[in-house]
Amino acid sequence: AQSVTQLGSHVSVSEGALVLLRCNYSSSVPPYLFWYVQYPNQGLQLLLKYTTGATLVKGINGFEAEFKKSETSFHLTKPSAHMSDAAEYFCAVSDRRTGNQFYFGTGTSLTVIP
Amino acid sequence: KAGVTQTPRYLIKTRGQQVTLSCSPISGHRSVSWYQQTPGQGLQFLFEYFSETQRNKGNFPGRFSGRQFSNSRSEMNVSTLELGDSALYLCASSIGRGTGELFFGEGSRLTVL
After folding, report:
1. Residue A64 confidence class, pLDDT cut points 50, 70, 90
2. Which residues of chain B does A34 touch, with a Cβ-Cβ cutoff of 8 Å?
3. Which of B108, B42, B45, B102 is nearest to A35 (CA)?
């Protein structure tokens, strides 16, 4: 079975500060890992994904994440927060066997303080 | 290229009624998946369709059903609505299965009174 744990349901950072959103996963097979962002009353937008290859993945809007197999983690970071980054962030896991059945974390709400 | 389109965006129903939600995937995408999003349970997988066949099903009662048409458009139906069915229903499309990326629509927000 696969699962995702996101530590911290709410994270607040100052504008210009480092953003760090934590994600740990459980998977019995090599996982696919994703970060999605959701703005109010909208669907989910893909920020970045890891499937195979380089473990440091760069995404849109300056976000990046590193797949650490030994720690079963896929934390999301951004060096400098912007007001427009305020949103809900979801980490998800899947694998080739489960097709498009993704397992999502419970989400982290990011607040950016001016 | 148009994104995933879901209709209706908002709807209100009463307990016991049924509802049908529609999803048009991105052109060329053959897989459509449905997810339910609620504050208490988060995002939960409902089912996945590929080439008009249900390929995967989540842990939901039989009141939740779906289908996919030959043009890859999909519908999901919820019968005998309950208050707990109030949620944002998200449709996601993908070129194929296990390709590692889902493109989500903006969702259909269902309120059951």
Report:
1. very high
2. 101
3. B102
> What mean pLDDT do residues B21-46 have?
94
**Which residues, in sequence order, are CB contacts of B18 under 8 Å at separation 6+?**
B77, B78, B79, B80, B81
Distance CA B72, CA B95 (A): 11
Identify from A101, A103, A109 which residue to disrupt to test chain B contact, counting B C-beta atoms within 10 A and taking the largest count.
A101
Taking CA atoms, what residue in B is nearest to A47?
B101
> What distance in Å separates the CA atoms of residue A73 and residue A67, rounded to the nearest whole number?
6
Residues of A in contact with B99 (CB under 8 A): 100
The reply to whether B15 touches chain A by the CB within 8 Å rule is no
Sign of the dihedral through C-alpha A96, A57, B93, B48? positive
Q: Report the distance separating Cα B62 and Cα B78, nearest Å.
A: 9
Mean pLDDT computed over A72-80:
97
Q: Does B24 touch chain A (CB under 8 A)?
A: no
